[in-house]
Design a protein that fits this description.
Number of helices: 2
Helix content: under 10%
Structural class: mainly beta
Strand content: 35-45%
Distance between the termini: 33 Å
Order of helices and strands: EEEEEEEEEEEHEHEEEEEE
Strand order of the largest sheet: 6-7-11-10-9
Length: 255
Amino acid sequence: VTVKPMLRLASVTDATYEQYNGEEIKTDLTLRAIEVTSSDAYNLVKDGKYYIADTLDKIDGGYQITRRIEHLELLATMTWNKANSVNAYYITVSDHDKRMRYVKSNRFVGVVWDSAFPSGDIVTFHTSLNFLYFRKDDITNVNDWKTWLGSNPLYADYILATPTTEAVSSENAKKLLSLKSHSTSTYISQTEDTEGVMAIEYPTSELTSKALTGYVKSEKNGILLEEFLCGQTTAGTYSVSATVDANEKVTYAWT
């Protein structure tokens, strides 16, 4: 027989009370971010860096995603053209923010094109023509480029001119709505095989008698990389964020 006695305050009169033992909530949501400069209309700041990012927003009765980043899978079947002067291949992209000429890719370095065509294996926008270019000097014609795409999955992320919203599935919404803070800590972490920037805004109320404290810590291979402490004693919405590298786990804890 295993006996597990529970101590509780005399003021707790509910005989059914049980200490919170933790709950694991997993979703299949994907949010993205792109680093910009302070002069752009950023919506996330971390360690002096500025980002435009998708957000998961709580609304009446549920959640919605605000998409500020377009994720585009590049396929050989798309209408590809070759640039006249260099070995670069492009498609037309209509809905991107011309003020913010930033693009990310899994196989090419994103470059802001200011004057001369950038060199190297790069991806860049020609904003006046709405062209998304991929330069690869060892591929000399469109057919070879399409063949390369067939065996090298490629994507690009870029900033939308007009953010869009999308509903969160009822299954994910139910999970998210069940996420609450419990004593002593609530932990929120992202999967370890992603990279990007994470932030959380935590609304609070009735904090007149107890301070809200929290930390963000990131670990890689079991080594603590970063820790951020904060303390609040009044109701409000408080934000903490952390930059996330591949194979790094970030945990948010609020007490």
